[in-house]
Protein backbone atom coordinates (compact mmCIF):
# COMPACT_ATOMS: atom_id res chain seq x y z
CA UNK A 1 0.00 0.00 0.00
CA UNK A 2 1.27 3.45 -0.76
CA UNK A 3 1.73 5.84 2.07
CA UNK A 4 -0.32 8.99 1.94
CA UNK A 5 0.86 12.15 3.64
CA UNK A 6 -2.00 14.07 5.12
CA UNK A 7 -1.67 17.74 6.00
CA UNK A 8 -2.69 18.09 9.65
CA UNK A 9 -1.70 21.57 10.81
CA UNK A 10 0.92 24.29 10.72
CA UNK A 11 4.19 24.04 12.57
CA UNK A 12 3.07 27.13 14.47
CA UNK A 13 0.12 25.13 15.87
CA UNK A 14 2.59 22.83 17.64
CA UNK A 15 4.10 23.54 21.04
CA UNK A 16 7.83 23.03 21.54
CA UNK A 17 8.50 20.16 23.93
CA UNK A 18 4.84 19.39 24.55
CA UNK A 19 1.80 17.78 22.97
CA UNK A 20 -1.25 19.02 21.13
CA UNK A 21 -4.25 16.98 20.04
CA UNK A 22 -5.60 16.90 16.49
CA UNK A 23 -8.59 15.17 14.95
CA UNK A 24 -7.56 13.28 11.82
CA UNK A 25 -10.13 11.21 9.92
CA UNK A 26 -12.29 11.01 13.01
CA UNK A 27 -9.47 9.83 15.25
CA UNK A 28 -7.71 11.82 17.96
CA UNK A 29 -3.97 12.00 17.48
CA UNK A 30 -1.43 13.45 19.90
CA UNK A 31 1.36 15.42 18.20
CA UNK A 32 4.63 16.12 19.97
CA UNK A 33 7.14 18.65 18.68
CA UNK A 34 10.56 17.74 20.06
CA UNK A 35 13.15 19.81 18.15
CA UNK A 36 16.07 18.11 19.96
CA UNK A 37 15.04 14.71 18.63
CA UNK A 38 16.07 13.25 15.32
CA UNK A 39 12.47 13.01 14.10
CA UNK A 40 11.34 16.45 15.39
CA UNK A 41 7.65 15.52 15.43
CA UNK A 42 5.96 12.38 16.74
CA UNK A 43 2.35 11.29 16.34
CA UNK A 44 0.68 8.70 18.58
CA UNK A 45 -2.92 7.95 19.51
CA UNK A 46 -4.40 10.40 22.00
CA UNK A 47 -6.27 7.58 23.78
CA UNK A 48 -4.61 6.30 26.94
CA UNK A 49 -5.56 2.59 27.02
CA UNK A 50 -4.70 2.31 30.72
CA UNK A 51 -6.34 5.50 31.96
CA UNK A 52 -9.09 5.08 29.35
CA UNK A 53 -9.31 8.72 28.28
CA UNK A 54 -8.10 10.97 25.46
CA UNK A 55 -5.27 12.57 27.38
CA UNK A 56 -1.93 11.59 25.86
CA UNK A 57 -1.38 15.04 24.34
CA UNK A 58 -1.40 16.49 27.87
CA UNK A 59 1.41 14.26 29.12
CA UNK A 60 4.91 15.36 29.99
CA UNK A 61 7.60 14.71 27.39
CA UNK A 62 10.84 13.21 28.66
CA UNK A 63 13.95 11.41 27.50
CA UNK A 64 14.11 7.99 29.12
CA UNK A 65 16.18 4.87 28.36
CA UNK A 66 17.47 6.61 25.25
CA UNK A 67 13.95 7.19 23.87
CA UNK A 68 11.65 10.19 23.72
CA UNK A 69 8.58 9.32 25.74
CA UNK A 70 5.40 10.87 27.06
CA UNK A 71 4.17 10.16 30.58
CA UNK A 72 0.42 9.72 30.63
CA UNK A 73 -1.08 12.40 32.87
CA UNK A 74 -3.38 9.81 34.49
CA UNK A 75 -1.25 6.94 35.80
CA UNK A 76 2.14 8.15 34.57
CA UNK A 77 3.11 5.19 32.41
CA UNK A 78 5.66 6.14 29.78
CA UNK A 79 4.89 5.62 26.09
CA UNK A 80 7.70 5.71 23.53
CA UNK A 81 6.82 8.46 21.04
CA UNK A 82 8.46 6.70 18.09
CA UNK A 83 6.61 3.40 18.51
CA UNK A 84 3.68 3.89 20.89
CA UNK A 85 5.08 1.12 23.11
CA UNK A 86 4.40 1.46 26.83
CA UNK A 87 7.57 0.96 28.89
CA UNK A 88 5.92 -0.35 32.08
CA UNK A 89 3.14 -2.47 30.59
CA UNK A 90 2.86 -4.77 27.60
CA UNK A 91 0.56 -2.45 25.69
CA UNK A 92 0.95 -0.20 22.71
CA UNK A 93 -0.87 2.77 21.25
CA UNK A 94 -1.00 3.54 17.51
CA UNK A 95 1.72 5.69 16.04
CA UNK A 96 2.21 7.43 12.72
CA UNK A 97 5.16 8.84 10.82
CA UNK A 98 5.18 12.61 10.87
CA UNK A 99 7.14 15.20 8.92
CA UNK A 100 7.53 18.94 8.82
CA UNK A 101 7.81 20.56 5.42
CA UNK A 102 8.02 24.31 5.19
CA UNK A 103 5.46 25.41 7.77
CA UNK A 104 3.29 22.29 7.37
CA UNK A 105 2.97 19.16 9.45
CA UNK A 106 2.00 15.94 7.68
CA UNK A 107 1.35 12.48 9.02
CA UNK A 108 1.45 9.27 7.04
CA UNK A 109 -1.79 7.36 6.66
CA UNK A 110 -1.92 3.89 5.14
S1 LIG B 1 6.38 -0.08 15.71
FE1 LIG B 1 6.91 1.11 14.04
S2 LIG B 1 5.50 0.59 12.52
FE2 LIG B 1 4.76 -0.30 14.33
From TrEMBL:
Q: Which InterPro entries match?
A: NirD, Rieske-like_NirD, Rieske_2Fe-2S_sf
Q: Which CDD domains does UniProt cross-reference here?
A: Rieske_NirD
Q: Which domain of life is it from?
A: Bacteria
PROSITE patterns in UniProt? NIRD (PS51300)
Provide any one GO MF term from the record.
nitrite reductase [NAD(P)H] activity
User: Which keywords label this protein?
Assistant: Nitrate assimilation, Oxidoreductase
What residues does the Rieske-like [2Fe-2S] domain cover? 4-107
Which GO terms fall under biological process for this protein?
Answer: nitrate assimilation
**Gene3D superfamilies tied to this protein:** Rieske [2Fe-2S] iron-sulphur domain
Protein's name according to its UniProt entry: Nitrite reductase [NAD(P)H] small subunit
Amino acid sequence: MTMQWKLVCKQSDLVVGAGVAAMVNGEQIALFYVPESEKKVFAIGNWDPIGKANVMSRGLVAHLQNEWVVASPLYKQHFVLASGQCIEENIKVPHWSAKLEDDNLYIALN
